[in-house]
Design a protein that fits this description.
Radius of gyration of chain B: 14 Å
Distance between the termini of chain B: 15 Å
Helix content of chain A: over 70%
Number of helices of chain A: 6
Strand content of chain A: under 5%
Structural class of chain A: mainly alpha
Order of helices and strands of chain B: EHEEHE
Largest sheet of chain B: 4 strands, antiparallel
Oligomer: heterodimer
Order of helices and strands of chain A: HHHHHH
Helix content of chain B: 10-25%
Largest sheet of chain A: none
Number of helices of chain B: 2
Chain lengths: 193, 90
Amino acid sequence: MHVLNEIRFLLHITSSRDIVRRYFVVNGFDGALTMLGLITGFSLSTAADLSVIINACLGAAIALGMSGLSSAYISEAAERKRALTKLECAMVTDLKSSAHGEASRRVPWIIALVNGLSPLIISLLILLPLWLANAGLPLPLSPLYSAIVIALLLVFLLGVFLGRIADISWFRSGLEALLIAMVTATLIYLFAG
Amino acid sequence: MISVKKMVLDVLKPHQPNAVEFSKAIARVGSDYSVHLTVLEMDENTETVQIEISAMAIDFAAIQSCISDMAGSLHSIDEVIVDSEADVDG
C-alpha cells in the first residue's frame, strides 16, 4: 500500500497519470490487434502445428513488451530530465534529492513498465486458449477461434475503459473499439484470405 | 527548556506538490502541528508561500528537511515565537 501511495504521489507531482493511462491503452491496443492479426492470419493459412503458432505469437508478444519498455523509458527519461532541469532553473536550487528528483528517476521506469507490460499481458491472455489446447484441455471452440474471441473481448474492455475515462457511454465506446478490431480482422481476411 | 511555539516562513516551491499536500507534509512532522499556508505570489513554474506553523515544540530541522524533500526552498524566517519554561525536576 505504501509503495502504491508513493507511485501515485510521484505520478501526481509530475502530472504523469494521464501519460500512464494513455500508454496503457495505446500499447494494450497494439498488443491485442497484433495478436488478433497473427492468429487470424494463422487461421486462414494451412493448418500449422499449435506449438509453432504459440512460439510465433509469443515472440511477437515479447518483442512488443520490450519495444514498449525501452521506447517509453528512453523518451520519458529525457522528458523528466528536461522538466527537472527547467524546475531547477526556476527554483535556483538542486532538486535531485527532493521528491521531484526522485520522480525524475522513478517515473520513467513506472511508465516504461506500464507501456511494456500492457501489450505483453494482453497478448498472453489472448494466447491462453492456445496453451490450454496444447496442454490437452478441451475448449468449446477451436483454440484459434477461442483466442480471437478473447482478443475481441479485450479490445471491447479497452474501449469500455476509455469510455469510463471520457465519462461517455461505456457500451458505445466498447463497441467502437470492437468495430476497429472487426475492421482489422476483415482486412486480414480480404488481403490474406 | 526553550521551545519554538510559532514560526512564519517564506518559502519558494514548485506548483506540485500543491498547497494542501505541502501543508499536510509539514503537519505530519509532529503530532500537534498546525499549519497555515498562504500563497503570496505565483509564476509559471513556482509559487512563493508564507507558512505559519504552531506547535508545542517545533522541530525546525525536521521542517527544513520536509520542505526540501518536497522540492521547496526556504527563503527566510519572518517570525518566531519562542517560550522558555523552567525544567521541572522530580
